[in-house]
Design brief:
Elements: H1 2-20, H2 26-32, E1 49-54, E2 59-70, E3 73-80, E4 87-91, E5 95-100, H3 104-115, H4 120-123, H5 126-129, E6 135-142, E7 151-156, E8 166-169, E9 195-200, E10 203-208, H6 212-220, H7 224-229, H8 240-251
Antiparallel strand pairs: 1-2, 1-5, 2-3, 3-4, 5-6, 6-7, 8-9, 9-10
Length: 253
């Protein structure tokens, strides 16, 4: 009798879970596949003026002559004054914010990479790759890959404009999904970034695509309307930037 009761409960739960699955139209999927985050850059331009704002409120400007990183994350910045030619070095734990420009060499490399994957043509904007605007970095305490001791780094915010609830930071060591290429032709498929650093509330985590479902409720579970429209068994990691943007929009009313 107990076995039959357990089996019935299992069937009911399975049915409820199946009922939650949403089938999206092709137009909706195409929209969800759009990559809305900014391009992540790792190399600052030494020829354009960068701005460093310390925690004490003081503002420092100069050419970013050097950055020191750990696992790709910046923990120290050196600025060279354009007039005095003197160099100042700042530790990340003293910096609140930083604005720098990406190097031309890295932009060219990213354009080449963009053109080498057919999938990019329908999911990304080339203008974000060639962006001439300043890149925004913020001081953030993180555990690299959720394994290391917490430490302050300067991390690039890649969802400015919709980061008031969930902030997404560039992972310089992120890998991408593989695709297929024939000869010297463009790659077909792949090119989806596998990980980001994400902050919601006081929690910052390294979010890998393999852990997306596990963390779905933490990210979006406090919005019942969103969860009904985009249940986790109906969406994919490829939609992550869209989901963050949509969740923010729905949460802000």
């Amino acid at each position: 009798m107990k076995f039959k009761t357990l089996m019935l409960a299992f069937v009911l739960v399975s049915t409820a879970s199946f009922a939650q699955k949403v089938k999206y139209a092709k137009e909706e999927i195409k929209k969800m596949e759009q990559y809305l985050f900014n391009e992540g850059f790792n190399m600052p331009s030494p020829k354009k003026t960068s701005t460093v704002i310390l925690k004490d409120g003081s503002v420092h400007k100069g050419f970013c002559s050097k950055t020191d990183s750990k696992k790709g994350q910046i923990f120290q910045v050196s600025l060279k004054d354009s007039i005095t030619k003197k160099t100042e070095t700042f530790d990340a734990d003293h910096i609140a914010e930083m604005y720098i420009y990406p190097s031309n060499a890295e932009k060219i490399a990213k354009v080449t990479k963009y053109m080498g994957n057919i999938r990019n043509y329908s999911t990304r904007k080339l203008t974000k790759t060639t962006n001439s605007d300043r890149i925004y970095f913020v001081n953030q305490t993180v555990s690299l890959k959720n394994k290391k001791d917490d430490k302050e780094f300067l991390m690039q915010v890649i969802n400015p404009g919709f980061d008031d609830i969930i902030s997404v930071y560039h992972d310089p060591r992120a890998k991408e999904t593989g695709g297929v290429s024939f000869g010297y032709g463009p790659q077909l498929g792949g090119g989806v970034i596998k990980s980001f650093y994400v902050k919601k509330g006081d929690k910052v985590l390294w979010l890998h695509k393999d852990d997306f479902e596990e963390n779905y409720d933490f990210l979006f579970g406090d919005n019942a309307e969103f969860m009904k429209k985009y249940p986790k068994n109906s969406v994919e990691w490829d939609y992550f930037s869209f989901l963050v943007n949509e969740y923010t929009s729905m949460s802000n009313g």
